[in-house]
Amino acid sequence: MINKSDIYYETLHAGYGQYFEVEQVLFEQKTQQWHLSIFENKTFGRVMALNGAIQTTQKDEFVYHEMMTHVPIIAHGKAKRVLIIGGGDGGMLRQVLKHSAIEQVTMVEIDANVVEMCKTYFPQHSQGAFEDPRVNLVIDDGMHFIAQCQGKFDVIISDCTDPVGPGEVLFSSPFYENCKRCLTEQGIFVAQNGVAFLQPEEIQDTVRRMSPYVKDCWFYTAAVPTYIGGTMAFAWATDDVSARQQDLATLTQRFETANINTRYYTPALHMASFALPAFVENAVKSAQATTA
Ligand code: SAM
């Protein structure tokens, strides 16, 4: 249990971590899948942690959610159908729905408790997104859903926990193979892929497991303050090798047409986010070499 005088220590990384002074415990429960904690912190506002790993905070959620939605949707240019795997807090859903051209969003979340708790304690994440008529919320394991899915999506976003427990299957080769099968011809798959400096093996695992199914498997990054240890890597997978090569004029024109407000995403940052540090590029290339 955590209580007011407690400190919440994140336990995701061995021997290194961040802590939060707990101003108020708002919710704590073992759900079917997780040990779910929600608490107030002076600096980051409301914080949600699952099994000792920070999932989202009121103050910095926009960075992660904007970069995992607007980059693939604006790169695609004509996205109509989107699939979100995970994303129980609703932040990803809200950003996708900002695009009026999106006609349908399916969101597959394994734990209904997370959705209900986040509607209650993080209303600003979803801001009514779950009630949008374009949304089809499915409570299921993302792997089970995608394995039997016959639909096709222009963008698939895997917004899941780290590759432990129920999240682990969402970093597997069968999951990636089925996601590719459910992408349209120019469809784009993105996924949270950990903080490259501390979790380089996650990057290499994704390259080895994803590359057999797509023409382009790469990464882009963003600095998310509470995903500690450096920039967060997002996996990028598509058969449309031009999808991450658009020029600034094209991205700017599409962004202006979308007419959405953002606090982190800009077309220039979109382009720059695909430039990787040498140690990440080398990790990707060495994993590619063992896959070829
Ligand atoms: N931004 C966070 C991060 O990068 O770790 C992810 C936030 S979101 C709360 C993660 C969601 O993934 C949780 O709601 C969790 O229940 C869901 N999840 C984990 N494994 C899943 C699975 N196999 N199928 C569907 N949802 C899953």
Can you offer a commentary on this structure?
The chain has 2 domains: 7-56, Spermidine synthase, tetramerisation domain (Spermidine Synthase, Chain: A, domain 2), CATH 2.30.140.10; 61-291, 3-Layer(aba) Sandwich (Rossmann fold), CATH 3.40.50. The chain is an alpha/beta fold. The radius of gyration is 18 Å and the shape is globular. A 7-stranded mixed beta sheet has the order 9-8-7-10-11-13-12. A 4-stranded antiparallel beta sheet has the order 3-4-5-6, covered by helices on one side. The protein has a two-stranded antiparallel ribbon with strand order 1-2. Helix 5 (142-148) crosses helix 6, helix 6 (173-181) packs across helix 7 and helix 7 (200-210) runs parallel beside helix 10 (278-291). The protein has helices at 61-76, 91-97, 112-121, 123-126, 142-148, 173-181, 200-210, 248-258, 267-272, 278-291; strands at residues 7-9, 19-21, 24-30, 35-41, 45-50, 53-57, 81-86, 104-109, 135-139, 153-159, 183-195, 216-222, 232-238. Residues 33, 55-56, 64, 85-89, 108-111, 114, 141-143, 159-162, 166-167, 169-170, 192 line the site of S-adenosylmethionine.
